[in-house]
Amino acid sequence: MVPVLNIKSVSQLRALLLEMETTLGLVELSPNERDVLYAINEVAAGMAKAARSDAIRAHPLAAAIPQATYHRALKSLVQRGLVKHAPDTKAGAYIVTGAVGGAGQG
Predict the structure, then answer these.
(1) Of 10, 56, 94, 98, which cross-links 104 as Cys (Cβ 3.0–4.6 Å)?
(2) Dihedral of CA 8/13/18/23: which sign?
(3) Which CATH number characterizes residue 74's domain?
């Protein structure tokens, strides 16, 4: 039997997420920046935990973001030091730096 979610359950999850984002300092990021950061962390693979730009873009959290907004969010994350270009890879691969409370761990 599939459990039925209600608005109370969703609101409790959202409150928990906000608390965690606050603890990690992520509330200072825009919603688009957070979604791109989460998408990078989700699709990162391999020894370097690198995420290819096309895989990030295809992730459900980033797919609905307009192209220009996506690139601005990614650039902002790089400038903030939360994401960097993956070493020893071709252009278009990124890693989460872990500069925010272990954000790159998982």
Answers:
(1) 98
(2) positive
(3) 1.10.10
For 94, the 3-state DSSP assignment is: strand
- Asked, for residue 10, whether it belongs to a domain, the answer is no
Separation between Cα atoms, residue 106 and residue 98, nearest integer Å: 11
Question: 68-106, pLDDT tens digit by residue?
Answer: 999 999 999 999 999 999 888 777 899 998 776 654 444
Q: Are 49 and 9 in contact (CB under 8 A)?
A: no
Contact 29, 37 (CB under 8 A): yes
> Residue 52 is part of which domain span?
31-106
Quote the number of domains for the chain: 1
pTM of the model: 0.84
